[in-house]
From TrEMBL:
Family label: Belongs to the enoyl-CoA hydratase/isomerase family.
Species assigned in the record: Ziziphus jujuba var. spinosa
EC category: isomerase
UniProt name for this protein: Delta(3)-Delta(2)-enoyl-CoA isomerase
Biochemical pathway: Lipid metabolism; fatty acid beta-oxidation
Phylogenetic placement of the source organism: Eukaryota, Viridiplantae, Streptophyta, Embryophyta, Tracheophyta
UniProt-listed InterPro entries: ClpP/crotonase-like_dom_sf, Enoyl-CoA_hydra/iso
C-alpha cells in the first residue's frame, strides 16, 4: 500500500512495507486515491516526492504472483490485463498533477515500477545499489501501448531506449545519469531522499501556478497524453 503525508509545501507519497512494492490492484487503487488527494490539496508552490520504504526496492512492477495464483493461464492473462488497464490512470494523474514531481528511488525499479518512476518530472536514485530494469523482453511479455509511448517521450536517446526495451539492460545510478534517464545518483537511500527534499523545496519556492505547470507538462508529451486520453485545458493568461 502507500501513505501520503504533507510537510510544509511538500507532499510525500511512500510505498510502504519492506517487500518489493509490487503494483497489485490494491496498491494501484491506493496510488490513484493518494494522487487525487494531492491534486485536491495542491496550492501554489507545492511539490510531490514519491519514494518507498526499505532499502532494496522502489517497485518491482505488477504483481505477477497474484496474476499467476489464479491457476489458469487465461485468468492469469486477464488479471495482468486488469493491472495494465488500472495503472493507466496513475500515469495520467502524474502527468496532470498541478505541481513538480520527484521520484526518489531507494532501490530497484523494474517494469511497471520503472515506468512509475519515469512518469515523474525528476528521478533521483542510488549509486551504491539498485537498478532500473524493463524485464518484459526477458519475461516474454509485450509492452502495453502507453509503456512504449512513455519510453519514447521520456528517454531521449534512441540507443538508450533500445538498450532498455530490447536489451533488458539493468542500469545502475551513474550509468542512468549518463544515459539521461535520471537526474542524479546518490550514495545511499537516505541521501537520495535528502536530495529529493532539497530539490522539492527549491522547486516549491518558485510558487508556480500549478494548473499552468500541468498544462505545460502535458504540452511536452503530446503523444503520451494522446494515448492516455488527456485533453488540454484552455487557461486564460493572467496578465
Amino acid at each position: 500500500m502507500c501513505t501520503l503525508e504533507k510537510r510544509g509545501n511538500l507532499f510525500f507519497l511512500t510505498l510502504t512495507g519492506d517487500d518489493d512494492h509490487r503494483l497489485s490492484p490494491a496498491v494501484i487503487d491506493s496510488l490513484i486515491s493518494s494522487l487525487s488527494q494531492v491534486a485536491s490539496q495542491a496550492t501554489r508552490g507545492s511539490a510531490l516526492i514519491t519514494t518507498a520504504q526499505g532499502n532494496r526496492f522502489f517497485s518491482n512492477g505488477f504483481d505477477l504472483a497474484w496474476a499467476q495464483s489464479a491457476g489458469s493461464k487465461s485468468v492469469a492473462t486477464d488479471r495482468l490485463h486488469q493491472m495494465v488497464v488500472s495503472f493507466k490512470p496513475v500515469v495520467g494523474a502524474l502527468l496532470s498533477l498541478p505541481m513538480p514531481t520527484i521520484a526518489a528511488l531507494p532501490g530497484h525499479a523494474a517494469a511497471g515500477g520503472f515506468l512509475f518512476a519515469l512518469c515523474h518530472d525528476y528521478i533521483l536514485m542510488r549509486s551504491d545499489r539498485g537498478v532500473l530494469y524493463m524485464s518484459e523482453v526477458d519475461l516474454g511479455l509485450p509492452f502495453p501501448d502507453y509503456f512504449t509511448v512513455a519510453m519514447r517521450s521520456k528517454i531521449g536517446s534512441v540507443s538508450a531506449r533500445r538498450d532498455v526495451m530490447l536489451g533488458g539492460m539493468k542500469i545502475r545510478g551513474e550509468e542512468a545519469v549518463r544515459m539521461g534517464i535520471v537526474d542524479s545518483a546518490h550514495d545511499s537511500a537516505e541521501s537520495t531522499v535528502e536530495a529529493a527534499v532539497r530539490l522539492g523545496e527549491k522547486l516549491a519556492s518558485r510558487k508556480w501556478d500549478g494548473e499552468v505547470y500541468a498544462e505545460i507538462r502535458k504540452g511536452l508529451y503530446p503523444e503520451l497524453c494522446g494515448v492516455l486520453g488527456l485533453a488540454a485545458k484552455v487557461i486564460t493568461p493572467k496578465l
